[in-house]
Amino acid sequence: MPPLCAVCESPTAYTLHFGGRCCKACAAFFRRTVALDLKYECAAGEPCEIHFSEWFFFCAGHIHGLRSA
């Protein structure tokens, strides 16, 4: 079984990115977010704290999705 991405659990995480095993799509998302200094907010308009360390769609323990702030 291929290694799973630590972010999205896709079975395509064959290499390490930024010190962790993740797929190329999640690595690219993180790279763009940092390089472009992007900020995100909860798409439901709630005052959530966004947690990128777990999965970028989790905010305050529930899944809403994110939008650029």
Automatic annotation (TrEMBL):
GO molecular function: DNA-binding transcription factor activity; sequence-specific DNA binding; zinc ion binding
InterPro entries membership: Znf_hrmn_rcpt, Znf_NHR/GATA
Source taxon at top rank: Eukaryota
Cited Pfam families: zf-C4
Ranges of residues in domain Nuclear receptor: 2-69
Alphabetical list of SMART domains matching this protein: ZnF_C4
Alphabetic keyword roster: DNA-binding, Metal-binding, Nucleus, Receptor, Transcription, Transcription regulation, Zinc, Zinc-finger
Protein name (Swiss-Prot/TrEMBL): Nuclear receptor domain-containing protein
Source species: Caenorhabditis japonica
